[in-house]
Amino acid sequence: MSYDWYNLLGRPRFVVAPMVDASELAWRLLCRRHGAHLCYTPMFHSNVFTKDPKYRKDSLQTCQEDRPLIVQFCGNNPDIMAAAAKLAEQHCDAIDINIGCPQSIAKRGKYGSYLQDDWELLQKIVSTMSKTVSIPITCKIRIFEDIEKSVKYALMLQEAGCKLLTVHGRTREQKGPLTGVASWKHIKAIREAVSIPIFANGNIQCLEDVYRCLECTKVDGIMSAEGILTNPALFEGINPLTWQMAQEYLDLVEKFPCPSSYIRGHLFKMFHKLFMLEDNNELRQLLATAQNINDFRQVCITIKEKYLHYHQGLKHFDNDEFIIRINFNLILPPWICQPYVRMSPEEHTKKMERHNKEQDENIHKRIHEDSDGNAISRKKMKKLRRIMRRPIKSENQPGRSGEICINEMCPNPLGSKCVYQLCKKCCKNKCYEENLDCEGHRILVYTKREMARKRVSENDDKT
Questions:
Q1: What family is reported (predicted)?
Q2: What secondary structure does DSSP assign to 243-277, as a single string?
């Protein structure tokens, strides 16, 4: 029973991940044409989806070729998420819940991986959505450090009604420069424990990685995000020319338009190795300022004209620094679509230590002094220089007198009408701390607080 609906989809194994501003229809179709079996939409906010018809229409842009398709939502209200799922169920084959996003915006909104600590709420979300729609509810999660807890987590979601689980083998803290390697051991343990289909996510840079992960974890499918952004033909097992992939993508964009920011983001990813070369700074700037489809096409044409002779062997490309070696000793020049190789957390830590050490050495080398020869900070020196550049007004001129704020730690000029002889910043701090007004700076902390108290008192009297 757990696999019936998955079998009807054709048991997809190669899956394109949900990526904000990057999994739009044109990109999904490009990936499908190059080996992908199943695609996810970008993550949509369930609350906005239910309230904004335009947002909903843009989100559900699809076509006959764009199936099977899973729509992903984020949120923390079971009823709102269920309502969003109901509005989308006629346009897709399943609804996914984002429980994996580790970004700070997810923390502020209490969704994504920041729901993984509230199992009771997650159970209610999954069960409510499952009862509301006629298509399966799936979940995309991250692991905990502890394998046993990760397994219990997956079993809890399965029991709540989840019909497919995508497991990103990294913890919530593994992001940005601290991403590191995903744990296939965790994914394997979850696969052995649950009875629903499982997708693995993490460490996929080429097709060989896909098959290694399938063999190691015994999962049903492999999801790629970062890897497929730099090579949309990853599941096809080839490394095509960057300009060929870019031009094919732009052809799809003309048929299925999307914001220029999406296009620019995809081209930057595909051309990422070329743009690391110093003599391509102008090309990088050209892409950064491109505004329409013709501008983007011109970038592709220029890159092709510049590197086609190297690819054909008519010219020798001599820059070993940007020819990287990946699995199975495959050597790829920078005009070929290839994996984005992240710096390891250890390398990043060492780099930051070196950077901080250099910064400290530079600070010690440059000693700033005031007019009396006293050592001062670089920040204070910059403030003093700004003050020196200001022309001193005569006594007959209206405005500031040229006097400095009476706060000894502040070099800013005082406000000409300030009651407390302070600059605006210091005056504001004083008013907030001591519950005062300053007519000169128009800072009315005391007045506003009294008005607020009065309104609260009036409301209490009415009730």
A1: Belongs to the Dus family. Dus1 subfamily.
A2: HHHHHHHHHHHHHS---HHHHHHHHHHHTTTGGGS
- Rounded to 10 degrees, what is the CA torsion of 300, 306, 312, 317? -130
Question: Which of the residues 39, 101, 405, 418 is marked catalytic?
Answer: 101
CATH superfamily entry for domain 4-237 = Aldolase class I (3.20.20.70)
26 alpha carbon, distance to own chain's centre: 20
* CA 377 to chain CA mean position, Å: 36
Residues in Cβ contact with 272 at an 8 Å cutoff, skipping those fewer than 6 apart: 230, 340
In 75-218, which ranges are E strands?
94-99, 137-142, 164-168, 198-201
Cβ–Cβ under 8 Å, residues 252 and 359: no
- φ/ψ of 7, rounded to 5, equals -65, -35
237 neighbors 357 (Cβ within 8 angstroms): no
* Burial 275-289, CB ≥16 within 10 A → b, else e: beeeebeebbebbee
> Residue 169 and residue 186: Cα distance in Å, rounded?
7
Residue of 63, 77, 59 lying closest to 29 (CA atoms): 63
Residue 101 appears among annotated catalytic residues: yes
Model confidence pLDDT, tens digit, residues 151-194: 999 999 999 999 999 999 999 999 887 788 999 999 999 999 99
Tens-place pLDDT, residues 87-109:
999 999 999 999 999 998 999 99
Of 64, 123, 66, 60, nearest in space to 87 by CA: 60
Alpha helix (H) residue ranges in 312-423: 345-365, 378-389
> Are the CB atoms for 177 and 134 separated by under 8 Å?
no
Separation of alpha carbons 45 and 54, rounded Å: 13
- The position carrying tokens 């005082």 is 414
pTM: 0.75
The two three-digit tokens of residue 451, written as one number = 């008005």
- Indicate the angle between helix axes 260-270 and 293-311, nearest 10 degrees: 10
Q: What is the DSSP letter of 404?
A: B
Q: Is 442 left (phi over 0), alpha (psi -120 to 50) or beta?
A: left
